[in-house]
Amino acid sequence: MRSLFLKIFVSYWLAQALFLVLAILVIFAFRQRGEFSEWQAQQATASQRAADVFEKDGPAEVHRYLEELRESQHVRAYLFDEQGREVSGRAVPRWADSLSRGIRPPPREFWQHMAPSPFRRLPVTSAAGHSYTLAVMLPPGPFGPRGVPGLGILIGIISSGLVCYLLARYLTSPVVRLRAATRRLAEGDLTARAGSAGSRRRDEIAELVRDFDIMAERLETLVKAQSRLLNDISHELRSPLARLNVALGLARQRSGPETQSALERMELESDRLNHLIGSLLTIARLESGADPSRKSVLALGVMVTEIAIDADYEAQARHCHVKPRVVNDCRVWGEGILLHSAIENVVRNGAHYTAEGTAVDVSLEHTGGEAIIRVADSGPGVPEEALEKMFRPFYRVDDARGRETGGVGLGLAITERTVRLHGGTVKAWNRPEGGLTVEIRLPCAPVPEAEAAPALASAGTHQNT
Ligand SMILES: Nc1ncnc2c1ncn2[C@@H]1O[C@H](COP(=O)(O)OP(=O)(O)O)[C@@H](O)[C@H]1O
Ligand SMILES: [Mg+2]
Prior knowledge:
- Helix content is about 55%, strand content about 15%.
- The protein is α+β, with helices and mostly antiparallel strands.
- It has 3 domains: about 35-145, Beta-Lactamase (2-Layer Sandwich); about 190-290, Orthogonal Bundle (Helix Hairpins), CATH 1.10.287.130; about 295-460, 2-Layer Sandwich (Heat Shock Protein 90).
- The longest helix is centred in the middle third of the chain and has 51 residues, at about 205-255.
- The radius of gyration is 44 Å and the shape is rod-shaped.
- The two termini are about 50 Å apart.
- Residues about 450-465 have low confidence and may be disordered.
- It binds adenosine-5'-diphosphate (ADP) and magnesium ion (MG).
- Magnesium ion binds near residues 349, 407, 411 and 465.
């Protein structure tokens, strides 16, 4: 049993049911041997007497005797002869009629289900040797029926089950909420709370939920402050950089040919800096969570093909190819620009690292409600220990490899954060035949055909690292 709810529910219920059954058994075991209903002691004489009175004194007397029994002991009885006729000539109620024919009448009221049946059928033989049947209905009390009330136990067990169910629900529901909130928080949704606000509970579990919410609140503030700082720094760096570019342009115009190469280098570095700041801004935005207003329905097939064609164009210089392969198309709900650059970062890496003259396979598949994008190249791959680390900001497998391309190690970090923000996952593995495969999985959006079209335009904007 893996669920806490089931554990609590079943164990409490078993304990209660066991207690109930044991209590009843103990009561019965310790009851004095001679103790049984007073009627049980009298029933033989009473039925014999009814038959004898009828034979000796006739219907009127037996009527009187049975009425007397009813008044003194509240026992209702009817005497039937061998032909099944009521001998005292009274109107026969239905229960007595069916009893005389050997059919046990159903209880008339629901509560009677919970007690032993009050009906008795007593065969008698009179002094003259004739057979009679006395149909009896016993009252509650000392004259009442005795026995273990089977349905009573059943109802006791079922109602204790209901109580245990409610108890188990009460105990585990905050844990379930806590678990869902923890999961959302782990997935990067910093607004996730377990919902202690409206609750008036004051027990340990409620305290735990409250503490979790305080922790989540604090975490959200901290992360937001951090990404705001990153954001502010990046913005502040942009303006001096822009002025630097303007100054560079002026210097270029006024300088002689001997300084041209130095100025070109400065321009290149300034471009890289600009690019880096752009990436940092993107990371800062990704850290502060999703912005639902920027989301739309995106057709991944078109996006993947577009990215591959662009990358293919650049890869031609190295006699490489990037081949898109849309096995089946899929739509996702997300931010077009972010997703575009997330996929593009991976495809460009592939095109960059794949060996000269080889091809990069970019495939899109749609299975089990997920879009799976795989980018497989024929490059050097990465060492096993770097397969996870390469998604961290500023991580480069070997510095020389990155530096010569101008990369700073932010591309895959942006990819990983973007994909996580869209509820997906990304991982990489080395191909047995050499090269690296990076796989992005994104949940597909169940959307109508018509809505996909306007979203495609937003996918066309390029922003890569
Ligand atoms: N397809 C690939 N083949 C081999 N190494 C790769 C591949 N893609 C990424 N890497 C390694 O992972 C590091 C991080 O990649 P990325 O985040 O895109 O940073 P960069 O800005 O250097 O491109 C790269 O420096 C590179 O060493
Ligand atoms: Mg890169």
